[in-house]
């Protein structure tokens, strides 16, 4: 999703600079000695804002039209000042379709607490001068087209609470000394082009709750020091080139609610006691890795789990019961080697009938044998995707399939189903994709199928 950048064209930058210098000269000349501190400070802010404006070359919504001498800068669109000092404390220009670079003069807004430029088309580097903003609490530069490295000088913004740099084109390493930011609770750096290894110092962030490093080019193993982040709630390392085992140090983080390790090259088996070590986990994805072994039985005890995604690994053996997992919304266990080709392989499906909000159930491309149990008719009424393809299932398709009236995708192809296709399949009025091929179905395609708007 690369946003198409307007080509920077030669603005009258020189002219603007000249103008600013003239204004500065006049302002400085006008300021009385007794007023020096205040006037100096607020004039710096005004000039910094004008410099910032000068680097913005596309402003289709004309949000910066109020940024002129006819208004005090505290009244300019997106600018909030502190009451007492009239210094800029918030610069909020999110989602304004702005394009340009971020002026280094931003670093002169020394009272800034919030810099929110998210969801625009800013490009080029994050200026090092952001590191001068020692009062900054929230830095939101996500959803732009920023490139170059994450400036290590950010580590000087010692009051930062949240830093969102995700969804840009940032490159280079994760700066090791960022972790000196002891108040940082959120660090979003996902969806960039960051490379190298995750620095060991990541364990030094003492307040971190959200760490998003997903969709980068990080390699190496997941450092054990991550286990020191005892307040972590959300961790995404998905879509990188990480190797090694499931990071066992993570099992010391009982606060964890979402853990996304999808699309890496991790090996080995899952820890056996996730129910005890990560009791608050709601989201667990390890899909598209190289995990082996069986699905830990203790998963059955994780009643708070919403999403369990282990698609495309090499898991083997039986699938445990999901009886206690009534909060399950998404169950993806396809493309493994699960099942033993035996009659009771799909018994676990009946344990899913308690998951009344389940909307995705994918068990395709495994080694499941036996028949599909009738209880599938008692699966969640909101189920919209049910994928059984590519197994060794036999017998007839239960007519109770017709209860799942909100199904949009049903695939049972590439099995060994026999008998006739149940006419109740015509109840599935919302089906957009129905795959029945490569089975031993006999007889007619039910006339009720005519009701399907495929
Ligand atoms: C700067 O501050 C001084 C005194 O604190 C005030 O008189 C002056 O109006 C301010 N100027 C601006 C542009 O805010
Ligand atoms: C992002 O900005 C676009 C306009 O450029 C707007 O349509 C969209 O709603 C914004 N997204 C969010 C989440 O604010
Ligand atoms: C403002 O920032 C620029 C760029 O970092 C710097 O060169 C300049 O000295 C600063 N001006 C003031 C008044 O602080
Ligand atoms: C960022 O962009 C993505 C798509 O590129 C969009 O889904 C998301 O809502 C945007 N977020 C914000 C905060 O604008
Ligand atoms: C981190 O590194 C940068 C550049 O090397 C430096 O400017 C900054 O002071 C360092 N921060 C800390 C907290 O050591
Ligand atoms: C940060 O982490 C590194 C590596 O784990 C460690 O050697 C260093 O002492 C830590 N620094 C601080 C300031 O805690
Ligand atoms: C969990 O933390 C304890 C105490 O800090 C430590 O002894 C143990 O090695 C850690 N376990 C893992 C798997 O990192
Ligand atoms: C589930 O939890 C109970 C109580 O803690 C425990 O006795 C049981 O062994 C657990 N079941 C599994 C399969 O781990
Ligand atoms: C549903 O959950 C209840 C309470 O946990 C349990 O008694 C019941 O056996 C479960 N039903 C199925 C079909 O697993
Ligand atoms: C099963 O494998 C085939 C062939 O590799 C693939 O096209 C299909 O998408 C897979 N289906 C599922 C549900 O994973
Ligand atoms: C489906 O649920 C109903 C009502 O809870 C129950 O009477 C019936 O036996 C169930 N059917 C199957 C096949 O589990
Ligand atoms: C498919 O099922 C038929 C009986 O319906 C059986 O004779 C045949 O061996 C099965 N084929 C495979 C590949 O399992």
Automatic annotation (TrEMBL):
PROSITE patterns: PROKAR_LIPOPROTEIN. This is LRR receptor-like serine/threonine-protein kinase EFR. It is found in: Cell membrane; Membrane. It comes from Punica granatum (Pomegranate). Gene3D superfamilies: Ribonuclease Inhibitor. Residues 1-29 form the signal peptide. Keywords: Cell membrane, Glycoprotein, Leucine-rich repeat, Membrane, Repeat, Signal, Transmembrane, Transmembrane helix. InterPro entries: DNA_repair-toleration (IPR053211), Leu-rich_rpt (IPR001611), Leu-rich_rpt_typical-subtyp (IPR003591), LRR_dom_sf (IPR032675), LRR_N_plant-typ (IPR013210). Belongs to the RLP family. Its main location: membrane. It is a single-pass type I membrane protein. Residues 43-81 form the Leucine-rich repeat-containing N-terminal plant-type domain. The gene is LOC116200587.
């Amino acid at each position: 999703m690369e946003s198409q950048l307007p080509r920077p064209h030669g603005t009258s930058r020189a002219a603007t600079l000249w103008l600013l210098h003239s204004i500065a000269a006049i302002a400085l000349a006008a300021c009385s000695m007794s007023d020096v501190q205040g006037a100096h400070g607020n004039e710096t802010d005004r000039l910094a804002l004008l410099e910032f404006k000068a680097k913005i070359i596309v402003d289709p919504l004309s949000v910066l039209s109020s940024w002129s001498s006819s208004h005090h800068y505290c009244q300019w669109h997106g600018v909030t000042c502190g009451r007492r000092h009239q210094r800029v404390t918030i610069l909020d220009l999110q989602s304004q379709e702005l394009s340009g670079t971020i002026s280094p003069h931003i670093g002169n807004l020394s009272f800034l607490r919030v810099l929110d430029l998210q969801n625009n088309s800013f490009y080029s580097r994050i200026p090092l001068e952001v590191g001068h903003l020692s009062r900054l609490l929230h830095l939101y530069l996500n959803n732009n087209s920023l490139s170059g490295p994450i400036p290590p000088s950010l580590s000087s913004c010692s009051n930062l609470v949240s830093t969102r740099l995700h969804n840009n084109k940032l490159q280079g390493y994760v700066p090791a000394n960022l972790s000196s930011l002891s108040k940082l609770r959120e660090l979003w750096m996902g969806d960039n082009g960051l490379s190298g290894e995750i620095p060991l110092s990541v364990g030094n962030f003492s307040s971190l709750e959200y760490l998003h490093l997903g969709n980068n080019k990080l390699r190496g193993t997941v450092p054990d020091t991550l286990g020191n982040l005892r307040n972590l709630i959300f961790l995404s390392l998905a879509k990188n080139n990480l190797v090694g085992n499931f990071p066992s140090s993570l099992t010391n983080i009982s606060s964890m609610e979402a853990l996304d390790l999808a699309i890496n090259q991790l090996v080995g088996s899952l820890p056996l006691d996730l129910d005890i070590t990560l009791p608050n986990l709601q989201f667990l994805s390890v899909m598209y890795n190289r995990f082996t072994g069986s699905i830990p039985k203790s998963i059955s005890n994780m009643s708070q789990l919403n999403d369990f995604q282990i698609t495309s690994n090499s898991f083997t053996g039986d699938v445990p019961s999901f009886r206690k997992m009534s909060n399950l919304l998404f169950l993806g266990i396809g493309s493994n080697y699960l099942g033993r080709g035996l009659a009771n392989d799909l018994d676990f499906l009946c344990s899913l009938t308690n998951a009344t909000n389940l909307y995705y159930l994918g068990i395709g491309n495994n080694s499941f044998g036996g028949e599909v149990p009738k209880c599938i008719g008692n699966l969640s009424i909101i189920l919209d995707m049910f994928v059984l393809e590519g197994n060794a299932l036999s017998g007839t398709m239960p007519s109770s399939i017709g209860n799942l009236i909100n199904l949009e995708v049903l695939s049972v192809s590439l099995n060994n189903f026999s008998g006739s296709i149940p006419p109740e399949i015509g109840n599935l009025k919302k089906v957009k994709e129905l795959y029945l091929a490569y089975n031993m179905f006999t007889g007619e395609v039910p006339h009720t199928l005519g009701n399907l708007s495929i």
